[in-house]
Amino acid sequence: MPSRVQREQHHRSRSLIGGKPKKEKKNDGMASSPYHAAVGVAVLAILLAAPAAEAGAPTAAPLATYSLEDACKKTGPHYGLCIATLSADRSAKSSDTVGLARVAVLAAQKNASETATYLSSIYDDDSIEKKTVQLQQCLEDCSERYEAAVEQLTDATVALDTGGYEEAMALVAAGQAEVKMCQRGFKAVPQHRNILTLRNREVDQLCSIAFTITKLIRVSPSAEE
């Protein structure tokens, strides 16, 4: 018969052998934390918003395409000067409307630059009779205005090259305004009012041509029919 000590040892051994170990709690891979849930919601929102953003994104209006002759027809009374000016540039015959506008602006800029040079020469010309203080002031004012016009027309070509068509129109209009102000200034010296009349008129007309053709860039020919 086993002793009391032997019975206790046997009981402890049985408990160790037959006892069930505690199971470790498995980490459920499908469980989601609040952080993961928030990320999922954010991603879903982005995916849903993307098509809406693309649908609402503004698209640039297509550029119009005018032939040299059709573009010049839009200049009205300046049609003859327009044809002569643009045809003088070989690249104009194969240019799109932007190219035609650039040729027109450059023609106005070149003419304005030549007039600015002419102004410098007559300002120092002693052959002009009765060169009063008023006339000298008028010539000086015109010289400054033409310098500004040349700069604005030069900037207009840069604007055309970078797609700033509205800016180009504004710059051409500003240059044209300088020329008109020059001519208006000669009202103070009526006896010399014709010194720059022909030159001012030509630059003014070239600016009108450049402005009109630049304006056509966003106007489709079919839309005007």
From TrEMBL:
Please verify whether the record's keywords include Transcription regulation. Answer: no
A single GO molecular function, which one?
enzyme inhibitor activity
CDD domains reported in the protein's UniProt record: PMEI-like_1
Keyword Lyase in record: no
Q: What is this protein called?
A: Pectinesterase inhibitor domain-containing protein
Organism of this sequence: Oryza glumipatula
Record Gene3D superfamilies: Invertase/pectin methylesterase inhibitor family protein
Region: Disordered; residue ranges are 1-31
UniProt lists the family membership as follows: Belongs to the PMEI family.
The record's listing under InterPro entries reads: Invertase/methylesterase_inhib, Pectinesterase_inhib_dom
Q: Basic residues bias located where?
A: 9-24
The UniProt keywords, alphabetically, are: Disulfide bond, Signal
